[in-house]
Amino acid sequence: MGLETKPLSTLHEKASYNVEDFPVPTGREEEWRFTPLSRLKGLHSGAAPAGGVLIHVDAAPEVTVETVGRDDQRLGKAYVPADRVSAQAFAVFEKATVLTVPREAVASKPTVITLTGSGEGAAYGHILVTLEPMAEAVLVLDHQGSAVYADNVEFVVGEGATLKVISLQDWADDAVHVSHHHALLGKDATFRSFVVTLGGDLVRLSPSVSYSGPGGDADLTGLYFVDAGQHMEHRLLVDHSQPNCKSNVVYKGALQGEDAHAVWIGDVIIRVEAEGTDTYELNRNLLLTDGARADSVPNLEILTGEVAGAGHASASGRLDDEHIFYLQARGIPFDDARRLVIRGFFAQLLEKIELPELRERVLGKVEAELEK
């Protein structure tokens, strides 16, 4: 599998399964300029020593779970790696986890994949989730422990199917995670993604969506809390190449502490043939202390004039003093007022987590960060 190009777009022009088609990043490239390469521990250069991540699947009874070798022909059909780390992960993973939801099946409970780092060396993984036409399922990806980990996750959502995914990055403080999540939506398919990034030393996630038929609907939501010294990077791509599809992106983050750094890149492409597209992306960052930094870059490339809607917005700022004063004037102490404002900042997003126990876990983690 060699180099593949994506013409008509200046945002994402190269994709390949071959590692050697991507030079080792130097940090001067546009796609790597925000990432501290020295903290990737060799994931970008192939120099990382081998390690392990334990994968445990608690599946709904309607879901088929398989562990397959890299020669399985189903792997890599929905996604072509777009950078060197993704290509490296695809080239060296040994076993892949494959989940299949049969046609018209409705999963009776969420399927939870728990990935636990061993704390030794680097690991590479691959997950494929396929929903056949008219199927419905909820999936949780729960990342824990200490790891240096790179992986690709493919979501293939068939015609009229609905997939909801919650990806929780709750790593130990020293973890490094570089991951690509790609969803391929069939005709009238629905995809809902909720990314929560709280733990790890460096986390770089690249969620992307493409469409194989008209009527697809994607909603991508993200919540992150960046503490002192942490680097959290989310790089999104929505590639509209089919008519009458929708996408909505909302990511919000809070940052506190010296050298807390968040990066959000939101790329949306509307190709010539994607008439009737309706898309919007939003990023908000709340800077709670001095020394924190947020980089937010929305990009919208429109190659047709026949769109239903297209827009983006981005803002980073500090707590609103008027909100704090309003609450203090009503007898609420400063620390409690601050906590209430931040909870309000995240409230609308948290409501989208339909699993109460997971919503409470995320809220508890945010509360713990605020106590620091």
TrEMBL record:
GO biological process, one term: iron-sulfur cluster assembly
Pfam entry (one): SUFBD_core
Lineage top rank: taxon: Bacteria
Location of the SUF system FeS cluster assembly SufBD core domain: 118-345
Ranges in a coiled coil: none
InterPro entries associated with the record: Fe-S_cluster_assembly_SufBD, SUF_FeS_clus_asmbl_SufBD_core, SUF_FeS_clus_asmbl_SufBD_sf, SUF_FeS_clus_asmbl_SufD
NCBIfam families: sufD
Family according to the record: Belongs to the iron-sulfur cluster assembly SufBD family.
Protein name: FeS assembly protein SufD
Source organism (scientific name): Streptosporangium roseum (strain ATCC 12428 / DSM 43021 / JCM 3005 / KCTC 9067 / NCIMB 10171 / NRRL 2505 / NI 9100)
